[in-house]
Amino acid sequence: MVHVHGQRESESEPPASDLFDAVKAAKSDMQSLVDEWLDSYKQDQDAGFLELINFFIRSCGCKGTVTPEMFKKMSNSEIIRHLTEQFNEDSGDYPLTAPGPSWKKFQGSFCEFVKTLVYQCQYSLLYDGFPMDNLISLLTGLSDSQVRAFRHTSTLAAMKLMTSLVRVALQLSLHKDNNQRQYEAERNKGPGQRAPERLESLLEKRKELQEHQEEIEGMMNALFRGVFVHRYRDILPEIRAICIEEIGSWMQSYSTSFLTDSYLKYIGWTLHDKHREVRLKCLKALKGLYGNRDLTSRLELFTSRFKDRMVSMVMDREYDVAVEAVGLLILILKNMEGVLTDADCESIYPVVYASNRALASAAGEFLYWKLFYPACDARVAGGRERRRSPHTQRTFFHLLLSFFLESELHDHAAYLVDSLWDCAGPQLKDWESLTSLLLEKDQSLGDVQESTLIEILVSSVRQASEGHPPVGRVTGRKGLTSKERKIQADDKVKLTEHLIPLLPQLLAKFSADAEKAAPLLQLLSYFDLSIYCTRRLEKHLDLLLQQLQEVVVKHAEPAVLQASAHALYLLCKPEFTFFSRVDFARSQLVDLLTDRFQQELEELLQSSFLDEDEVYNLAATLKRLSAFYNAHDLTRWELYEPCYRLLRKAVDTGEVPHQVTLPALTLVYFSILWMLNCISESDASQPLSPQKQLLSLKGRMVAFCELCQSCLSDVEPEIQEQAFVLLSDLLLIFSPQMVVGGRDFLRPLVFFPEATLQSELASFLMDHVFIQPGELGSGHSQEDRLQIEQLHQRRRLLAGFCKLLVYGVLEMDAASDVFKHYNKFYSDYGDIIKETLTRARQMDRSHCSRVLLLSLQQLYTELLQEQGPQGLNELPAFSEMRDLARRFALSFGPQQLQNRDLVVVLHKEGIKFSLSELPPAGFSGQPPNLAFLELLSEFSPRLLHQDKQLLLSYLEKCLQRVSPDSSCTWGPVTTYRHSLSPVENTAEASPQGYPRSKKRRIEGPSRQHRGDISPSQEESLRLNSIPPTPTLTSTAVKSRQPLVELEEMEEEGGSELAFTQGQPRLGIRRSRSSSPQHFQTPVNALGPGLGNRLTRLSLMEEDEEELEIQDESSEEWQGTGKSSPSEHGLDLLDSTELNIEDF
């Protein structure tokens, strides 16, 4: 109970908002603000204390105030109950959570006020007994309130008050120690020198300090037991985070009293909290403790108990929590030797290959301190790090090689280099040591070690030159700072100057090995090539060109050839002064390859048989020419005609080996693209010359497409797939979109594929993409890797076909061949098919819905032909079709008004299809397509209530014409009728839900704590057994659900089971702790009852007779049927029923 202190009483209303407004404005100095309050308190203690109480009440967002009458006559619980009744329940925000710039700094100002209040009162009112004791009593009562705002704000105030008291207690402890030293020094003096008055004053001072310390400890004990012990497991994560953050600061600032197992256990238990922010606060608090080597000796017991949990948090699903966990383990590694076992460290090593760069860098730092630092310790002399010796650098790279190869965690060293870049960047940028290791004659490196060391060299050069991590690693940063850009530019110059003379030597040593030559050629991509000119290094350029030509002549591997062609492309820039000599070297190389090709081609065309060596040489020459044709314009060498003759012979006779046919196809493809590029860049104002070129190019392109179409039926799968890929690209390039952007002069080149070609492309897709592969194992075996590569190839083929659909090259109806496999092959191609479906809907919503229906019809017809009409709906394949229909239905989303006409037409066409074929004469069974109605019922939840009624009438009318007597007993008809019945989903009559009033969530008290725990158990850390993670005490009063609301909920379910499984029911408020995010049905912006005023669609458009439907507001439906893109809700496909993220 709040007791009145002092003789003066103020009957007037206290100035409740003075302190609050000043703290909210945060414009005045907190010390002067507190001093003003202290002056007013000294003048009128009751009024001053009332002002302080009302400040905290206002800070909670409560408009009510504590009056003098309440202050005198009511207890704390009565005051809080009265304020709770006055609380504004219409708003969900309060000062600590309110949005807007005016509240942005309130929490900081609020905490600063509490801190300054204790600081200014530490020599006066702090030990008065009245203000602090009553304030603590009030905050303790508020922290146990049902109202979240009271509980959150008072807990923050209480914990900040506790933190300030801890600082005061620390100062008192220091004063006591100082007083004790003075007393001992005075008492140890001789009898003649000792001053009795001095000793007496020191004793009095000691007694006073002792009394003050006892009072402070009493306040801290009241706050800890009254607030912290209950609120560290509050249902609100913000409150739990506040408690953990503050107890961590107490342990750091006053470790003598708080750094004990009885307090540490609270942090240890909360490491298991399910909310990210709370776990983060735990780890940060522990980092402050483990970072101080003087405190680690007192953490041994805690470490042995909770080490496994701290190590496991490296794999936390929240990246920032995992980063803090790794940082904590680094401190443990540095300051507590031998605590982390090899098994603990081995569980952290794989994180260096994580996709998140912050986490990978943290793991890289851990790896550095564990593995590299002890062996490669850089001595510090005079405050500056001296240059590492060559031996130290060699040791570093040997350790790096050993870790990468022996751990067998990853195949790409670039990610390991990036993880170590922040902590071991200087060592990784020691390219002199790296190249000297590679160029040593008497070296002990094996073949695999050499390849890995070259990869490390290329990765470090790329990282220094580009300044960003490798592909696939997320940084979260937008760009480099000016300082980082300067370092990047300097590093690029240094590496270029060092590697230009050494690159020819490296290629000369490793040119025979394709795995080593290809990455070495990639180094040119990261050079500052202008240095060849400015530093007069042309002689090294000549050596490089010689080595490059030797590499091309020696190898036929695609990776080496692509790297060689790209390296030559980088050097063949007209702005370089050495362009002429590089162009000459390129011409020499292409002349050499062309001459070889012409000779080997004549032998092939004239001879009826070629041995393996001749076939290999011709295929290798074609691969080299194809790789260079990709990067360089080789049109003047006129390679199209001989390659076309070669392909024509391959198609006509089948005598050309497929090893030769594959690169020949690619070479002709590149020749067509380079010719198109030349025409596109030519001057369109000269129509005569380009016109001849256009006709020539069109003829070549059509002829090549015919060749590729013939190759689709080749016996070799590689040739089929290559022809399909090239055809897809050419059809896309020469589609109508090529004239966009002012290139109308290219219109003669536009090519439309014939129906036969479209059919063959679709057939190829069925035979090569939608096939069932074998079961995939762990992914580490050679067979599993081959399956993964094949899956990627099939995905590329499907993506090429879908692009033709999206850009209108193929008819939209061809998409049914893709959509009908959506459900069956969802794990392999779900993202591609979903994106195609989305784009198709954006192009033409009506046509897209017809294609979806066509997909189901095709599947049904195929199953009907295979199995017959008897028992069709009991087959597993039919259940798969139902799942596909449900997925298609979900793709329409929650916008019932927008999709109304589409869904109605889909139902109508589906009914026609199901009754399109009658049973044979003399047979009284149901029509063979009737089971299709069960598939159609999956789309019924997408209908409005009034449309269901009309479709039901339309169904009955159609059934009367088919079979007037027996139709009512057919199972599919019954199922479909049920899906259209009004009881099925009454909530659908109003497609958009009514807006609901926003109520404040009232949470129950948490006074019922476990009473069976003894004080010794509460204060000690149990070591003999693992204590269970304490259940977070929910303070929510769970009100019972109204019966009417539950009934409405059951009606909303119906047959739309899959839909409602993924969406929260409108009658249930979701728990705040639930992690998955679901989509809510958008609120109807036009108000309730709109569905009753909307036009009913005319559904019955039969040839013989039409069912007249009275329509009072057709114009209104036409107006509301259109909606802006901003009104379109999120697509529910894959995010509700299957809880799969959008791609």
UniProtKB/TrEMBL annotation:
Assembly behavior: Part of the cohesin complex which is composed of a heterodimer between a SMC1 protein (SMC1A or SMC1B) and SMC3, which are attached via their hinge domain, and RAD21 which link them at their heads, and one STAG protein.
Highest taxon of the lineage: Eukaryota
Keyword Nucleus included in the entry's annotation: yes
Basic and acidic residues compositional bias, start-end: 1002-1012
Origin species: Vicugna pacos (Alpaca)
Acidic residues bias spans: 1045-1054, 1102-1115
Record flagged with keyword Cytoplasm: no
Pfam family, one: HEAT_SCC3-SA
Protein name: Cohesin subunit SA
Domain SCD: 228-313
InterPro entries: ARM-type_fold (IPR016024), Cohesin_Scc3/SA (IPR039662), HEAT_SCC3-SA (IPR056396), SCD (IPR020839), STAG (IPR013721)
Its job: Component of cohesin complex, a complex required for the cohesion of sister chromatids after DNA replication. The cohesin complex apparently forms a large proteinaceous ring within which sister chromatids can be trapped. At anaphase, the complex is cleaved and dissociates from chromatin, allowing sister chromatids to segregate.
Coiled-coil region(s): none
Key words of the record: Cell cycle, Cell division, Chromosome, Chromosome partition, Nucleus
Biased composition (Polar residues): 1073-1083
Subcellular location: Nucleus; Chromosome; Chromosome, Centromere
Region Disordered, residue ranges: 981-1087, 1102-1143
Family: Belongs to the SCC3 family.
Major location category of this protein: nucleus
